Structures are given as C-alpha cells and as structure tokens.
Amino acid sequence: MTNLLWPGDERAGAHMTDQTLLASMVAVESAWLGALSAAGLAPSKNAELQHLVGEPDCELLALGAEDGGNPVIGLVALLRERATPVLSPWIHRGLTSQDVVDTALMLALRAVIDHLTAELDTQIATLSALAMTHRATPMIARTLTQHAAPITFGAKVAGWLDGVVDAYQRISRLSTPAQFGGAVGIYSATVELASQAGGATDPARLAERVALNAATALGLDFRPPWHTIRTPVTAAADALVGCTDSWGRIASDVVTMTRPEIGELSEPAAAGRGGSSSMPHKRNPVLSILIRRAAIAAPPLAATLHTAAALANDERPDGAWHAEWDTLRTLARHTIVAGSQCGELLSGLQVHRARMARNLEAADIPDKQQFGAAEVLIEESLARAQRTLAG
Fold first, then answer.
1. How many domains is the chain built from?
2. Using an 8 Å Cβ cutoff, are 371 and 138 in contact?
3. Model confidence over 271-282: pLDDT tens digits?
4. C-beta of residue 267 within 8 angstroms of C-beta of residue 288
5. Whose CA is closest to 352, among 288, 267, 244?
6. By residue range, what is the domain housing residue 163?
7. Where does the record place the Fumarate lyase N-terminal domain (predicted)?
8. Is 276 labeled as catalytic in the residue annotation?
9. In the chain, which stretches have pLDDT less than 70?
C-alpha cells in the first residue's frame, strides 16, 4: 500500500489494508462458525472459510458497502453463496455486522500492537546504549529556546528513553477484545439456537461460552459485548498517540540540534535523502520532519475516536461507530510509519561531541562543568527500562 501524500506509508506494509481487514472479517466468521459447531449448534464440518474469498473480492465488497453502510452484509452473502449447502445457512448465525467489523478491527489491531511493541523494545535498547555512551558527554541545556545550564547528552537521551518506556508500557498492556453480542448485544440469536438445539440446561451460559471460544480461537480477549462502550477503541487510540508523542519529542530535539548554527546532531546519511528541489546544498532532517508530522496528526485522529465514543447512542450508533473504522486504520498505519522512521533515526544518529563542547564553552553561564545528578538520573532511567522489558 502506498500513499502519495503520506511519504513512507509503505513502511506500514499490509497492516490494516483492505485485504488484511477483509481476511480478518473472514477469520471472524470462521471462528464463530467453528465455535457454534464445537457447541453442537451448527453442523460439525470444516468451518474454515478463507478459501472462499480472494483479493479481487475487496473492490466488489467495497463498491457494494454503501448500500448497507458496511462491507459485512455483502461479505456474508458472498460466503453463503460460495460455501457448501451444509454450511451456508449457518454462516453469520448469531452475529451482527458490528460484531464482525469490531472483531476484525481488533484482530488487525493486535498485529499492529505486536509490531509496535517489538519496535519500541528495539528503541529502548538503542536509547539505553546511547545514554550510556554519552553519559559524560557535556552539552548546554536549553529552556524556552535559550541557553540554560550544563547537562550531558546522556541525560537528554535518558529523557527520550523515559518517554519511549512510557509508550511501551501503555501499548503492551492494551486489551484487544472480541465482539460477539449479536443483534442488540445480549446474545439473543445464539441463546435461541441453544434453546432450539435442546440439551443445554442454561442456553444463556452456552451462548456466552460460544463467544468465549470464538474469541480464544482468534487469540483475542473476552469481555461482555461493547457495542456502545467504546473503551477498547479509545484506549488503543490513546496508546498509539502515546507512541507518536514520545517519538515527536525526540524528533523535535533532533530538528533543533541539527540546525547548522547548533550542529550537535546529524540524521543518518542516506543517498538522496534530505534533498531540496531548488537548493541542492541543503540536507534536510527529513526523518525527524516526518516523525513530527505524525505527532501533529495523531491527536486529532484520537479525538475523533473519543468523540465517536461519547456519541455512541442506543444499542448501535448511527454514524459515530462508522466514523471509527478508517480513523483507527489511519492512526494505526501512521503510528507504524513514525515508529519505523524513529527507529532508523535513533540507530544511525550522529553525535558531534566537539560541537557540543564548543557550544557549551560559548554559553555565557557560570560553572560549565557542573552536571548535577545527571549520572544518577541516567542510571535510574536505564534501570526502569530494564524492569519494563523484564515484565
């Protein structure tokens, strides 16, 4: 997937693409059908449906989605048309379109979370090593854009590390629950199936167990239906923004420190990167610029998701729910891209110690060799990072 107006979008790969989300929807239908079969509520046949849908179906379903307001209605019709006569009537029994969309989004989001957790893990290791390497590299601190007091570059990096650890903690603890509430969020159709099948002493509990088994099959968490309680979506949004916040903070320091008149850092060198269409002498800090772009764009996307959550009325929202889908997809992909760019920035960051020393010497401040508790703070940040990764 590419996006001409979001340079670097290809770094997000297949995460949250139409094809991935369609495959997730089919996986949800398969898991649910398998859970019905295991409970004796549907024929005990192979419930795998993935082979029934291919990439060309994406456009077909997208074009037809406007009629019902979501792509699930067309997908269910397609699956029933292509499935065996034995399985066809049981596809989607007990589900509603929101169950499939919400669970598919959570399934795709789980892969995003795993990807970002691994990225943050690597960044924590990179920043820890950078802080140790420069724990005694003196530089001038700046507050309100002006020279302040001496610190070490290692202390500055320790601050970056703390932010990345915060992001890691938030995103690694996210819950991605399945959604299997049925038409109005109380398992109505599944309870009816259980009652008609006979043999179930408590049809309601059996319906709940079907939902639990389907969630487990997908590797998702189980919780009561959350059709109009949108906490899983807003929690994910907040965690994603926490990532872009931490990376934006790093990029903001880098773009300042790469200014020619400061010259304390340089971005990793790469052929063709940082060029200008009209000023060939320039080498723009393009990685930091693009990371800052994501940090600026992410909070409004999260705000949209919070607004949608607040307006989630009745037992299925009329427009608020629909506003979430592409907003969450966009936020997730932008976050992956920014994470990849920040990882590349940190792994190849060039530190100019001599320039840091000259800038410190030129600063009109007393006691240029007093670094306070910088070493202690670095050690505390490193210890916190190690505890976080250890779980």
1. 1
2. yes
3. 777 665 666 777
4. yes
5. 267
6. 9-390
7. 80-295
8. yes
9. 199, 274-279, 368
Out of 11, 82, 316, 355, the active site residue is 316
Q: Which of 44, 195, 276, 347 is catalytic?
A: 276
Q: Residue 152 belongs to what H/E stretch? A: strand 146-152
Q: Please give the structure tokens belonging to residue 263.
A: 């010259």
Q: How long is the chain? A: 391
Q: What is d(CA 172, CA 110) in angstroms, rounded to the nearest whole number? A: 10
In a domain, 3, yes or no: no
CB atoms near residue 318 (< 10 Å):
11
Rounded to whole angstroms, how far apart are CA atoms 48 and 33? 8
- Report the distance separating Cα 8 and Cα 287, nearest Å: 10
Q: pLDDT tens digits, residue range 159-191?
A: 999 999 999 999 999 999 999 999 999 999 999
DSSP summary character for residue 88: G
Flag whether 375 is in a domain.
yes
Write 358-361 long-range contacts (CB < 8 A, 24+): 359/139, 359/140, 359/262, 359/264, 360/138, 360/139, 360/140, 360/150
Give residue 271's pLDDT: 72
**CA 297, CA 112: separation in Å to the nearest integer?**
18
Comparing CA positions, the residue from 303, 326, 324, 328 lying closest to residue 312 is 324
Give the SS3 label for residue 253. Answer: helix
Q: Is residue 280 part of a domain?
A: yes
Output the pTM of the full model: 0.96
Task: Look up residue 40 and give its two tokens.
Answer: 């004796």
User: Looking at the domain assignment, is residue 4 inside a domain?
Assistant: no
Q: Rounded to an integer, what distance in angstroms lies between the CA atom of residue 102 and that of residue 225?
A: 10
Q: Is-contact 1 20, C-beta < 8 A?
A: no
- Provide the pLDDT for residue 278: 67
Rounded-to-integer distance, Cα 230 and Cα 224, Å: 12
Q: What is the pLDDT of residue 168?
A: 98
Residue-level pLDDT at 262 = 97
CATH no. for residue 193? Answer: 1.20.200.10
Q: Render pLDDT for 10-59 as a digit per residue (tens, 0 to 9).
A: 999 999 999 999 999 999 999 999 999 999 999 977 778 999 999 999 99
